Protein backbone atom coordinates (compact mmCIF):
# COMPACT_ATOMS: atom_id res chain seq x y z
CA UNK A 1 0.00 0.00 0.00
CA UNK A 2 2.81 2.35 0.82
CA UNK A 3 5.12 2.07 -2.16
CA UNK A 4 5.88 5.18 -4.14
CA UNK A 5 5.90 4.45 -7.84
CA UNK A 6 8.16 6.00 -10.43
CA UNK A 7 6.83 9.43 -11.34
CA UNK A 8 4.82 9.55 -14.55
CA UNK A 9 3.64 12.87 -15.92
CA UNK A 10 0.06 12.65 -17.15
CA UNK A 11 -0.59 14.23 -20.52
CA UNK A 12 -3.39 16.70 -21.08
CA UNK A 13 -4.24 20.25 -22.05
CA UNK A 14 -3.66 21.49 -18.48
CA UNK A 15 -0.47 20.60 -16.67
CA UNK A 16 -0.81 17.96 -13.95
CA UNK A 17 -0.35 19.25 -10.42
CA UNK A 18 0.71 17.48 -7.28
CA UNK A 19 1.66 18.43 -3.79
CA UNK A 20 1.14 18.32 -0.05
CA UNK A 21 -1.47 20.10 1.98
CA UNK A 22 -1.46 20.10 5.77
CA UNK A 23 -4.62 20.72 7.74
CA UNK A 24 -4.03 22.41 11.00
CA UNK A 25 -6.15 24.03 13.66
CA UNK A 26 -6.90 23.80 17.31
CA UNK A 27 -8.04 20.44 18.70
CA UNK A 28 -11.50 19.36 17.53
CA UNK A 29 -11.53 21.87 14.65
CA UNK A 30 -12.64 19.18 12.18
CA UNK A 31 -9.36 18.47 10.39
CA UNK A 32 -9.63 14.68 10.34
CA UNK A 33 -13.26 14.75 9.23
CA UNK A 34 -12.35 17.11 6.39
CA UNK A 35 -9.48 14.85 5.32
CA UNK A 36 -11.87 11.89 5.10
CA UNK A 37 -14.48 13.97 3.24
CA UNK A 38 -11.93 15.03 0.63
CA UNK A 39 -10.54 11.51 0.21
CA UNK A 40 -14.07 10.12 0.04
CA UNK A 41 -13.31 7.31 2.49
CA UNK A 42 -12.34 7.02 6.12
CA UNK A 43 -8.55 7.11 6.25
CA UNK A 44 -8.14 8.87 9.59
CA UNK A 45 -10.08 8.41 12.79
CA UNK A 46 -12.20 11.16 14.31
CA UNK A 47 -13.85 11.68 17.65
CA UNK A 48 -15.47 14.37 19.75
CA UNK A 49 -12.51 14.28 22.16
CA UNK A 50 -9.92 16.97 21.53
CA UNK A 51 -6.43 15.87 20.53
CA UNK A 52 -7.49 12.63 18.93
CA UNK A 53 -4.93 12.83 16.17
CA UNK A 54 -1.44 11.74 17.14
CA UNK A 55 0.22 10.60 13.92
CA UNK A 56 0.86 12.30 10.61
CA UNK A 57 -1.35 10.30 8.27
CA UNK A 58 -1.73 11.10 4.64
CA UNK A 59 -4.92 10.97 2.69
CA UNK A 60 -4.59 10.97 -1.09
CA UNK A 61 -7.10 12.65 -3.39
CA UNK A 62 -6.87 11.37 -6.98
CA UNK A 63 -8.17 13.61 -9.76
CA UNK A 64 -7.67 13.57 -13.51
CA UNK A 65 -5.80 16.87 -13.25
CA UNK A 66 -3.99 16.48 -9.95
CA UNK A 67 -2.98 14.51 -6.92
CA UNK A 68 -3.59 16.19 -3.61
CA UNK A 69 -1.78 14.63 -0.66
CA UNK A 70 -3.29 15.55 2.67
CA UNK A 71 -1.17 15.52 5.78
CA UNK A 72 -3.23 15.29 8.93
CA UNK A 73 -1.38 16.70 11.92
CA UNK A 74 -2.14 16.71 15.64
CA UNK A 75 -3.79 19.84 16.97
CA UNK A 76 -1.27 22.43 18.17
CA UNK A 77 -1.70 23.31 21.83
CA UNK A 78 0.27 24.53 24.80
CA UNK A 79 2.13 21.37 25.82
CA UNK A 80 1.67 19.94 29.32
CA UNK A 81 3.44 16.60 28.85
CA UNK A 82 6.37 15.20 26.91
CA UNK A 83 3.85 13.69 24.50
CA UNK A 84 2.41 17.19 24.03
CA UNK A 85 5.85 18.59 23.20
CA UNK A 86 6.57 15.81 20.72
CA UNK A 87 3.23 16.39 19.00
CA UNK A 88 3.88 20.13 18.70
CA UNK A 89 7.33 19.50 17.20
CA UNK A 90 5.69 17.24 14.65
CA UNK A 91 3.32 20.03 13.64
CA UNK A 92 6.08 22.62 13.22
CA UNK A 93 8.20 20.24 11.12
CA UNK A 94 5.23 19.42 8.90
CA UNK A 95 4.47 23.10 8.24
CA UNK A 96 8.00 23.61 6.96
CA UNK A 97 7.68 20.78 4.45
CA UNK A 98 4.29 21.11 2.77
CA UNK A 99 3.12 23.29 -0.14
CA UNK A 100 -0.05 24.58 1.50
CA UNK A 101 -1.10 24.88 5.14
CA UNK A 102 -4.87 25.08 5.57
CA UNK A 103 -5.99 26.34 8.96
CA UNK A 104 -9.39 25.09 10.16
CA UNK A 105 -11.55 27.47 12.19
CA UNK A 106 -14.80 25.83 13.38
CA UNK A 107 -17.82 28.10 12.77
CA UNK A 108 -19.52 27.01 15.99
CA UNK A 109 -16.73 28.58 18.06
CA UNK A 110 -15.36 32.12 18.10
CA UNK A 111 -11.87 32.77 16.80
CA UNK A 112 -9.96 32.87 20.09
CA UNK A 113 -6.61 32.81 21.89
CA UNK A 114 -5.92 29.20 20.80
CA UNK A 115 -6.25 30.24 17.14
CA UNK A 116 -4.12 33.34 17.69
CA UNK A 117 -1.35 31.21 19.26
CA UNK A 118 -1.44 28.80 16.32
CA UNK A 119 -1.58 31.41 13.56
CA UNK A 120 1.24 33.42 15.16
CA UNK A 121 3.40 30.27 15.07
CA UNK A 122 2.30 29.52 11.51
CA UNK A 123 3.35 32.99 10.34
CA UNK A 124 6.95 31.86 10.99
CA UNK A 125 6.66 29.10 8.36
CA UNK A 126 7.30 31.43 5.46
CA UNK A 127 7.66 28.91 2.66
CA UNK A 128 4.12 27.53 2.52
CA UNK A 129 0.97 29.09 1.08
CA UNK A 130 -1.71 29.66 3.75
CA UNK A 131 -5.44 29.00 3.35
CA UNK A 132 -8.20 29.49 5.93
CA UNK A 133 -11.07 27.00 6.10
CA UNK A 134 -14.19 27.86 8.09
CA UNK A 135 -15.33 24.35 9.09
CA UNK A 136 -18.69 23.02 10.38
CA UNK A 137 -20.84 25.61 8.56
CA UNK A 138 -23.86 23.35 9.16
CA UNK A 139 -23.64 24.30 12.85
CA UNK A 140 -23.84 28.08 12.33
CA UNK A 141 -26.30 30.64 10.94
CA UNK A 142 -25.40 32.60 7.78
CA UNK A 143 -24.88 35.72 9.91
CA UNK A 144 -22.56 33.89 12.26
CA UNK A 145 -20.60 32.46 9.30
CA UNK A 146 -20.19 35.95 7.83
CA UNK A 147 -18.97 37.27 11.17
CA UNK A 148 -16.61 34.30 11.48
CA UNK A 149 -15.06 35.05 8.07
CA UNK A 150 -14.45 38.64 9.17
CA UNK A 151 -12.73 37.41 12.37
CA UNK A 152 -10.51 35.08 10.31
CA UNK A 153 -9.52 37.91 7.94
CA UNK A 154 -8.75 40.17 10.93
CA UNK A 155 -6.57 37.50 12.53
CA UNK A 156 -4.64 37.16 9.27
CA UNK A 157 -4.06 40.92 9.09
CA UNK A 158 -3.00 41.04 12.75
CA UNK A 159 -0.42 38.25 12.40
CA UNK A 160 0.87 39.23 8.96
CA UNK A 161 -0.54 36.19 7.17
CA UNK A 162 -2.01 36.66 3.73
CA UNK A 163 -4.73 34.02 3.24
CA UNK A 164 -4.59 32.79 -0.36
CA UNK A 165 -8.23 31.67 0.10
CA UNK A 166 -10.85 31.77 2.86
CA UNK A 167 -13.33 28.92 2.29
CA UNK A 168 -16.40 27.94 4.33
CA UNK A 169 -17.15 24.18 4.27
CA UNK A 170 -19.21 21.52 5.99
CA UNK A 171 -17.59 18.08 5.90
CA UNK A 172 -20.65 16.46 7.43
CA UNK A 173 -23.05 18.15 4.99
CA UNK A 174 -20.61 17.73 2.09
CA UNK A 175 -21.02 21.43 1.43
CA UNK A 176 -18.25 23.16 -0.58
CA UNK A 177 -15.84 20.24 -0.06
CA UNK A 178 -15.45 19.91 -3.83
CA UNK A 179 -14.84 23.63 -4.17
CA UNK A 180 -12.14 23.46 -1.51
CA UNK A 181 -10.46 20.61 -3.42
CA UNK A 182 -10.49 22.73 -6.62
CA UNK A 183 -8.99 25.73 -4.85
CA UNK A 184 -6.28 23.65 -3.17
CA UNK A 185 -5.36 21.98 -6.46
CA UNK A 186 -5.01 25.44 -8.00
CA UNK A 187 -2.39 26.32 -5.39
CA UNK A 188 -0.22 23.22 -5.98
CA UNK A 189 2.89 23.30 -8.15
CA UNK A 190 3.00 21.45 -11.44
CA UNK A 191 4.32 17.98 -10.84
CA UNK A 192 3.95 14.25 -11.50
CA UNK A 193 1.62 11.74 -9.92
CA UNK A 194 3.33 10.68 -6.69
CA UNK A 195 1.23 7.69 -5.57
CA UNK A 196 -0.32 4.83 -7.57
CA UNK A 197 -3.96 5.09 -8.65
CA UNK A 198 -6.24 3.79 -5.94
CA UNK A 199 -3.94 4.37 -2.96
CA UNK A 200 -5.90 6.45 -0.47
CA UNK A 201 -3.28 6.67 2.25
CA UNK A 202 0.30 5.64 2.82
CA UNK A 203 -0.15 4.73 6.46
CA UNK A 204 0.79 1.08 7.08
CA UNK A 205 -2.17 -1.22 7.71
CA UNK A 206 -1.03 -1.91 11.29
CA UNK A 207 -1.28 1.79 12.07
CA UNK A 208 -4.74 2.12 10.51
CA UNK A 209 -5.94 -0.91 12.45
CA UNK A 210 -4.50 0.40 15.74
CA UNK A 211 -6.18 3.74 15.10
CA UNK A 212 -9.56 2.11 14.46
CA UNK A 213 -9.26 0.25 17.77
CA UNK A 214 -8.33 3.48 19.55
CA UNK A 215 -11.28 5.25 17.95
CA UNK A 216 -13.66 2.55 19.23
CA UNK A 217 -12.08 2.76 22.70
CA UNK A 218 -12.50 6.55 22.83
CA UNK A 219 -16.26 6.34 22.43
CA UNK A 220 -17.94 6.97 25.76
CA UNK A 221 -14.83 7.69 27.86
CA UNK A 222 -14.26 11.04 29.55
CA UNK A 223 -11.84 13.40 31.26
CA UNK A 224 -8.20 12.33 31.21
CA UNK A 225 -8.82 8.80 30.00
CA UNK A 226 -8.90 9.53 26.24
CA UNK A 227 -5.37 10.93 26.47
CA UNK A 228 -4.16 7.89 28.39
CA UNK A 229 -5.21 5.35 25.78
CA UNK A 230 -2.70 4.08 23.24
CA UNK A 231 -3.04 1.05 20.97
CA UNK A 232 -0.29 -1.02 19.39
CA UNK A 233 -0.90 -3.88 16.96
CA UNK A 234 1.60 -6.53 17.98
CA UNK A 235 0.90 -9.04 15.25
CA UNK A 236 -1.36 -9.26 12.25
CA UNK A 237 -1.62 -11.94 9.60
CA UNK A 238 -3.89 -14.28 7.68
CA UNK A 239 -4.59 -17.48 9.59
CA UNK A 240 -2.92 -20.48 8.04
CA UNK A 241 -4.84 -23.49 6.79
CA UNK A 242 -8.02 -21.57 5.91
CA UNK A 243 -9.79 -22.24 2.59
CA UNK A 244 -8.94 -19.57 0.02
CA UNK A 245 -12.52 -18.29 -0.16
CA UNK A 246 -12.80 -18.08 3.65
CA UNK A 247 -9.79 -16.08 4.83
CA UNK A 248 -9.51 -14.90 8.42
CA UNK A 249 -7.22 -12.14 9.56
CA UNK A 250 -5.80 -12.55 13.05
CA UNK A 251 -5.11 -9.26 14.80
CA UNK A 252 -3.37 -9.21 18.18
CA UNK A 253 -3.39 -5.78 19.77
CA UNK A 254 -2.59 -4.22 23.11
CA UNK A 255 -4.55 -1.32 24.47
CA UNK A 256 -2.43 0.63 26.95
CA UNK A 257 -3.70 2.81 29.76
CA UNK A 258 -1.68 4.62 32.41
CA UNK A 259 -3.20 3.42 35.66
CA UNK A 260 -4.91 0.44 37.22
CA UNK A 261 -8.14 2.38 37.78
CA UNK A 262 -8.30 3.17 34.06
CA UNK A 263 -7.89 -0.49 33.20
CA UNK A 264 -11.07 -1.28 35.10
CA UNK A 265 -13.01 1.41 33.26
CA UNK A 266 -11.83 0.24 29.85
CA UNK A 267 -12.64 -3.38 30.58
CA UNK A 268 -16.00 -2.65 32.20
CA UNK A 269 -18.22 -4.88 34.30
CA UNK A 270 -17.23 -8.47 33.54
CA UNK A 271 -15.47 -7.31 30.40
CA UNK A 272 -18.62 -5.83 28.86
CA UNK A 273 -17.07 -2.57 27.74
CA UNK A 274 -13.99 -4.15 26.21
CA UNK A 275 -16.21 -6.59 24.37
CA UNK A 276 -18.24 -3.83 22.74
CA UNK A 277 -15.08 -1.85 21.90
CA UNK A 278 -13.64 -4.97 20.28
CA UNK A 279 -16.86 -5.60 18.36
CA UNK A 280 -17.03 -2.06 16.99
CA UNK A 281 -13.34 -2.04 16.09
CA UNK A 282 -13.62 -5.41 14.36
CA UNK A 283 -16.45 -4.16 12.14
CA UNK A 284 -14.43 -1.11 11.13
CA UNK A 285 -11.31 -3.19 10.42
CA UNK A 286 -13.33 -5.62 8.31
CA UNK A 287 -14.83 -2.70 6.35
CA UNK A 288 -11.38 -1.22 5.77
CA UNK A 289 -9.55 -4.41 4.77
CA UNK A 290 -12.41 -6.44 3.29
CA UNK A 291 -11.62 -9.64 5.25
CA UNK A 292 -13.24 -11.24 8.28
CA UNK A 293 -11.19 -10.47 11.36
CA UNK A 294 -10.45 -12.23 14.62
CA UNK A 295 -9.47 -9.52 17.07
CA UNK A 296 -7.54 -10.41 20.21
CA UNK A 297 -7.50 -7.23 22.28
CA UNK A 298 -5.70 -7.05 25.65
CA UNK A 299 -5.56 -4.18 28.10
CA UNK A 300 -2.20 -3.38 29.66
CA UNK A 301 -0.81 -0.72 31.93
CA UNK A 302 2.10 1.42 30.77
CA UNK A 303 2.51 3.59 33.83
CA UNK A 304 2.42 7.33 33.04
CA UNK A 305 3.53 6.64 29.46
CA UNK A 306 2.73 10.17 28.27
CA UNK A 307 5.59 11.52 30.41
CA UNK A 308 8.10 8.72 29.94
CA UNK A 309 10.51 8.93 26.96
CA UNK A 310 11.18 5.18 26.97
CA UNK A 311 7.51 4.25 26.96
CA UNK A 312 6.76 6.87 24.29
CA UNK A 313 9.32 5.25 22.01
CA UNK A 314 7.85 1.83 22.62
CA UNK A 315 4.40 3.13 21.73
CA UNK A 316 5.70 4.63 18.51
CA UNK A 317 6.08 8.34 19.31
N1 LIG B 1 -21.67 19.18 12.50
C1 LIG B 1 -20.42 18.98 12.07
N2 LIG B 1 -19.54 18.37 12.86
C2 LIG B 1 -18.28 18.19 12.40
C3 LIG B 1 -17.88 18.63 11.11
N3 LIG B 1 -16.58 18.33 10.95
C4 LIG B 1 -16.20 17.69 12.09
N4 LIG B 1 -17.22 17.60 12.96
C5 LIG B 1 -17.20 16.98 14.30
O1 LIG B 1 -16.27 17.65 15.14
C6 LIG B 1 -15.59 16.71 15.98
C7 LIG B 1 -14.07 16.82 15.78
O2 LIG B 1 -13.75 16.43 14.47
P1 LIG B 1 -12.29 15.87 14.06
O3 LIG B 1 -12.29 15.79 12.58
O4 LIG B 1 -11.92 14.67 14.85
O5 LIG B 1 -11.40 17.09 14.55
P2 LIG B 1 -9.81 17.27 14.52
O6 LIG B 1 -9.55 18.70 14.24
O7 LIG B 1 -9.20 16.29 13.59
O8 LIG B 1 -9.47 16.94 16.02
P3 LIG B 1 -8.06 16.55 16.70
O9 LIG B 1 -7.61 15.30 16.07
O10 LIG B 1 -8.50 16.38 18.10
O11 LIG B 1 -7.14 17.69 16.53
C8 LIG B 1 -16.14 15.33 15.63
O12 LIG B 1 -17.15 15.01 16.56
C9 LIG B 1 -16.72 15.54 14.23
O13 LIG B 1 -17.80 14.67 13.95
C10 LIG B 1 -18.85 19.29 10.28
O14 LIG B 1 -18.62 19.71 9.14
N5 LIG B 1 -20.10 19.44 10.82
From TrEMBL:
Localization annotation: Cytoplasm; Cell membrane
Region (G3): 72-75
Residue ranges of the region described as G1: 25-32
Region spans: G4: 135-138
Residue span(s) of domain KH type-2: 221-303
PROSITE patterns listed in its UniProt record: G_ERA, KH_TYPE_2
Pfam family, one: KH_2
InterPro entries to which the protein is assigned, alphabetical: G_ERA_dom, GTP-bd, GTPase_Era-like, KH_dom-like_a/b, KH_dom_type_2, KH_sf_prok-type, P-loop_NTPase, Small_GTP-bd
Keywords, comma-separated and alphabetical: Cell membrane, Cytoplasm, GTP-binding, Membrane, Nucleotide-binding, Ribosome biogenesis, RNA-binding, rRNA-binding
Record-annotated Era-type G domain positions: 17-190
Chain positions recorded as GTP binding sites: 25-32, 72-76, 135-138
Membrane-topology descriptor: Peripheral membrane protein
UniProt keyword annotation of Plastid present: no
Chain segments carrying region G2: 51-55
Keyword Secreted among UniProt keywords: no
Record region (G5): 169-171
NCBIfam families the record matches: era, PRK00089.1, small_GTP
Oligomeric and partner information: Monomer.
Function summary: An essential GTPase that binds both GDP and GTP, with rapid nucleotide exchange. Plays a role in 16S rRNA processing and 30S ribosomal subunit biogenesis and possibly also in cell cycle regulation and energy metabolism.
Family from the record: Belongs to the TRAFAC class TrmE-Era-EngA-EngB-Septin-like GTPase superfamily. Era GTPase family.
Protein name (database record): GTPase Era
Organism: Nocardioides nanhaiensis
Amino acid sequence: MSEIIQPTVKQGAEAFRSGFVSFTGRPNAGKSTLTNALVGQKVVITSDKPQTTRTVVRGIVHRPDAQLILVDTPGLHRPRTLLGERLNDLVLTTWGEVDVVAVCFPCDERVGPGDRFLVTELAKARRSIKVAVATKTDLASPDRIAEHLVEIAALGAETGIEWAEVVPVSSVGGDQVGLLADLLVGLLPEGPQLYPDGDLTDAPEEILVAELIREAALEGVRDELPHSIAVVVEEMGLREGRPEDKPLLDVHANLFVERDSQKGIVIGHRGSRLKSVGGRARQQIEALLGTPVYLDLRVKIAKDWQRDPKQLRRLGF
